Amino acid sequence: MPDYDDELGESAEPVMLSTLADSIAGSASDPDEAVDMCRDLANAENLDPEQYMDLVGLVEGATGWDLPEEGERL
Questions:
Q1: Residue-number span of the structural domain to which 45 is assigned
Q2: How many CA atoms lie within 13 A of 3 on its CB side?
Q3: Does the residue 2 lie in any domain?
Q4: Would you give the end-to-end CA distance of the chain in angstroms?
């Protein structure tokens, strides 16, 4: 069963991440808020660390912002 879930996640990933990134890019007012939204959505969607980084990259591309990494904000 885990193989099925992995295959489903991989096949749906590009569309889902693109949709999430578009939503964040349209809603976030600054880079810090965008990172918070990425993290919240990653947790809600159970994204793995690689998918989270892909999401951040998509948001950076859509907004033109250089989003701070987790350790840079603490």
A1: 15-67
A2: 0
A3: no
A4: 38
User: Looking at the 3D structure of the chain, how many domains does it have?
Assistant: 1
Residue 29 lies in a domain: yes
Q: Please give the structure tokens belonging to residue 11.
A: 């096949």
What is residue 69's predicted lDDT score, i.e. its pLDDT? Answer: 81
Binned at pLDDT 50, 70 and 90, residue 59 comes out as very high
Give the separation between CA 30 and CA 4, rounded to whole angstroms. 38
∠ CA 61-62-64, rounded to 5°:
65
6 located within any domain: no
Predicted confidence at residue 33, as pLDDT, reads: 96
Q: In this predicted model, what pLDDT tens digit does every residue of 3-26 receive, in sequence order?
A: 444 444 454 566 789 999 999 999
